[in-house]
Amino acid sequence: MAFTFPDDFELGVASAATQIEGGDTANSWYDWYATGHIPDGSDPSVATRHYELYEEDARLMESMGIRHYRMGLEWARLEPEEGVFNEEVFTHYRDEIQLLQSMGIEILLTLHHFTTPLWFEKLGSFENPKSVEIFLSFVKKVIEELGDLVSQYITINEPNVYVSHGWFLGAWPPGKKSMKAAFRVMTTLCVCHIRAYTLIHDMRRCNGYDDTMVSYAHHMRSFVPLKRYNPIHLIMTPLFHRIFQSSISRSFLTGASSWPIGRMKGIRKGLYCDFHAVNYYSRTAVSGLSDGTLPHVPVNDLGWEIYPEGIVKNTQELFRLANLPIYITENGTCDNEDSFRNRYISEHLKMLCESGLPVKRYYHWCFTDNFEWLEGVSARFGLVAVDYATQKRIIKKSGEFYIRMIAEKGISENLEKEYCKQAYRLDTAHVTAAPDATEKQKKQEKKHE
């Protein structure tokens, strides 16, 4: 397992505004909570109170040796009414970014990460014919206010997850179940990304900056038929892959319509990413248009398969479309007891570092435990634990491991022995393995390597 990071490969952490900040009740996810859609009753207007405690979190990040941070903006805070921007909130974000930069921490800024202002939702969200112009107005204001500080941007986070959950499954805001609407919104988001990409470059270039880097964060998965000899599963696997992933890969990158993404009026073919931004977590066993898991495979606490090979397979899929640098903008796992996270991280990093791909950044999801959408605060992905009653931050064992990896620029045999000898759980039933993996588990894990 021991390996060294390439010279230009660096570790960071990621977060999203609504998941950590607290204090805002004018966004779509607070409304989703207020109308009873979060099973554990977690309130996103509390979260980790990062909006108040950002200085403490910045100092903690600095102390851990973290030098790359993917942070998000809360659109609803910045534009609480259509066309009315809150200058105090822009000042707050400016202060936060400058504090982090004074600590040597480089910012990758996300403009849209699943949440929208309530006024935008009431206008029909991204189904509104004017939604592209509304979104671009927001982007323009952000670059006017923060563009002198930040050179790296994510326009839209995981458009496929946002659309599939919000417009197809109806599990997220706005809670619709329409494949036709889902495809239409996905096309609109593609236009939003491409036009935002162009706008950000044009505005920063006019102000004398030539270091602009823009992409969107693509949630990617590996897909396999649930049953290898079932003809329906075999047919649905490439279809699921196209609808959820490959059409987005091509259209968002090049501006070319690729079904189910429709014709994009006014968009010319070109190259609309400066780097590939990959969010990777798991593999899907396909039987229909829903997630599934193979039997007898390692899983995390949410039942997602742990499949490290997929991070390279999916990154290679994007890299074949364009020779661009690669940022892993999210990778991590729900491990509430922090009992296998080190192994998960180390196996995924080893795959990346030995892939030969030009991977420049790895942003672990996430820095602290946070509000994990429908899972509320019951699902813990952080390197740093949060006691939600006191808001106290405590570095986990996996956080200690991350600190050591950053300092040592890799994983030595001693570091692996001290931190990574951990057992996974098997099956979606979450059967807990003993500290030393049983012979049955070892055979199962070997089978799926």
TrEMBL record:
InterPro entries: GH (IPR017853), Glyco_hydro_1 (IPR001360). GO terms for molecular function: beta-glucosidase activity. Keywords: Glycosidase, Hydrolase. Its EC number is 3.2.1.21. GO terms for biological process: carbohydrate metabolic process. Transmembrane segments: none annotated. It comes from the Bacteria. Pfam families: Glyco_hydro_1. PANTHER family: GALACTOLIPID GALACTOSYLTRANSFERASE SFR2, CHLOROPLASTIC (PTHR10353:SF209), GLYCOSYL HYDROLASE (PTHR10353). Belongs to the glycosyl hydrolase 1 family. This is Beta-glucosidase.
